[in-house]
Amino acid sequence: MLLVGFIFGAVGSAMFGTDQFLDKPEIHLPPQPIFPADVRDEHLGLLQVEGEDHGEDAEAHFTPLGATEFAVTNTLLSSWFTTVVLILIFVTAARRRSVIPGRFQGFVEMMIEGVLGFAGSVLGPEMARKTFPVVATIFFFVLFNAWLALLPFYQFLGFTQDGEIKAHFLRSAGTDINMPLALALISFVFVEYWGFRARGFSYLKKFFQLGKIFRGKPSGLIDAFVGFLELTSELVRVVSFTFRLFGNMTAGEILVVMITFLVPFVATQFVFGLELLVGLIQAVIFAGLTLVFLSVATSHEEH
């Protein structure tokens, strides 16, 4: 199958003059609207206008959603699908729990204990239990969203025109910059909340170190500048969180599509294995950095 995929893929067809097994893929970076139908048809060029042929140049009619428009996109559906899967997994494991766990319950408990142990190693046991629900939700959502996107029906379920898929019904939510941005904002607000809860309004001192300036000491300018850098780095976290996850998930999806086009069948499986690892790494990084920033925000500096 690897040899057949090479011969009839884009690489083999260019070398041996064979017919390509797959057409050249089309990659849409903006999320595509799915519902309501009129918005979907308008933006994807699926509307058939009398006297016009949209068969070959339908791509030219594709337009992303405007800033004031709302529609259920394929990435939003994917995030809902991931949420439902996670709820079913944990609710099913909790309803059928027993003193001697079965395989499924044992697997779920192993995942929870692994994340809790990871959080405890950074924050300590007590703080880890307090912050565990949000941190674990972030970890499992990023992980399962990346892994579920590798299921085959993500690639072949969609709305077609003239035998071609114009919009996939589901697409990894990580490839829509809105989802990583939303997670980054949740992480940011969560860290700041615990910073204020642990240290009160004294938490602001690391951003606004103006005491020496008010006392007329020139060295206060250095403290103020350091505080400005701290505030900037705190805000930049939102940007770095967002584009790290968005960039890796989008690059992974493009890589899968291109390898499938260049060398279909068996070669694609190696990329799928790589994407499984990338999904795990991104979940660990996102949750891990949130834990590190929580530890910094809640620690009381000793002077």
Core attributes:
303 residues; mainly alpha; two-stranded antiparallel sheet; two-stranded antiparallel ribbon; 64% helix; globular
Could you please describe the fold and organization of this structure?
With 303 residues, the protein is mainly alpha-helical. It has helices at 2-8, 10-16, 37-44, 74-95, 103-123, 125-148, 153-156, 178-199, 211-214, 220-262, 266-298, and strands at residues 33-35, 72-73, 158-161, 164-168. Helix 8 packs antiparallel against helix 10, helix 8 runs parallel beside helix 11 (266-298) and helix 10 runs antiparallel to helix 11. It has eleven helices and four strands, in the order H-H-E-H-E-H-H-H-H-E-E-H-H-H-H. 64% of the residues lie in helices and 5% in strands. The model is unreliable at 49-60 (pLDDT under 50). Strand 3 and strand 4 (164-168) form a beta hairpin. It has one domain (72-298). The protein has a two-stranded antiparallel ribbon with strand order 1-2. Strands 3-4 form a two-stranded antiparallel sheet.
